[in-house]
Amino acid sequence: MIEPIGSNLNMLSLDSNKINTSNRNPSDDFGDLVRDNLQQVNNLEKNADNLTTQFALGEIDDIHQVTIATEKARMALNMTLGVQNRLVQAYEEVMRMQI
Fold first, then answer.
1. CB-based contacts of 93-98 (< 8 A; 24+ apart in sequence)
2. Is the dihedral of CA 85, 5, 28, 93 positive or negative?
3. Looking at the record, which segments are called Disordered (predicted)?
């Protein structure tokens, strides 16, 4: 059985980049929802890369900040890959249906 995609995307909510689904109208475009969440994942990765670079250059000393940002980006990417795999699985299941 395929679970609703929205329930998996809500698990992606992070402190600074929470997904705000309460303001969404049910008629909002699914593509906009996916695009917004992919942009958030991209922003998390950019933030982690930026902090890693700053740490390597000695501009910041807090390794915990770098580690947390990197872990947030990794978890967001893994969640995105999970959603992608579920979408592909759903597509394949629909394509196997006999009409």
1. 93/2
2. positive
3. 1-29
pLDDT digits (tens, 9 = 90+) for 11-65: 555 454 555 556 666 667 888 988 999 999 999 999 999 999 999 999 999 999 9
In whole angstroms, what is the distance from residue 99 CA to residue 82 CA?
Answer: 29
Phi, psi of 97 (to 5 degrees): -65, 140
Question: In whole angstroms, what is the distance from residue 17 CA to residue 41 CA?
Answer: 9
C-alpha Rg value of the chain to the nearest Å = 17
How many Cβ atoms sit within 10 Å of the Cβ of residue 82?
13
Name the residue among 34, 33, 32, 41 with its Cα closest to residue 13.
41
Distance of alpha carbon 14 from alpha carbon 18, whole angstroms: 5
Cα 86 to the center of its chain, rounded Å: 14
Which helix (H) or strand (E) element contains residue 40? Answer: helix 30-56
Residue with tokens 């999970």: 82
